[in-house]
Amino acid sequence: MTSIITGDIIKSRGQKNPEIWLSHLKAALSYLETDNTLWEIYRGDSFQIEIKDITKSFEAAIYIKAAIKMIKGLDVRLAIGIGEKTYQGKDVTESNGEAFIFSGETFETLKKEKQNLKIKTKSQILNDELNLYFKLALISMDHWTVNSAEIVKLTLENPKALQEDLAKLIGTNQNAISKRIKRANLDEILALNNMYKKKISILI
Fold it and tell me: Mind listing the pLDDT tens digit for each residue in 54-67?
């Protein structure tokens, strides 16, 4: 059982210097998975990553979104597929199985449905429930500012850090950090992540 995230960068072609978002994307993917055979960037602005711990797949999606939304004007579409892996290729885009098919199929529906994050597992009841939660979470996540995205990314990288510690890392004060966390609805999104872990663990 594994999880596959397929994604692409929204409005990437409007960027004068693609190297900026490309470096952010590479850094995010390599942070999530140090084995670079488990992620790949292809067709310019599309990518795929395998997150072996399926309970961490939503957190990985949040992290990628935050990393890209730190660049003004950009966003990301993400499709999570959870299922079996039946073939291990030399890199992620050559591997195959249920998780890859679910992720690819779901990704193809995102643009038409105008939703930037969806999941597919073999449980339709679970899919319906989680995709409703995602739809609600995206009301906030799709509108993260650069500052909001930065604090989300920083919090995920330093889960035990206090607000004062985060403030020192980016050269601001605790009050500013508190406001950014509130504006990003980060507490609610982290609560959703905890619930997601419990729901997904029934698939293991």
Answer: 999 999 999 999 99
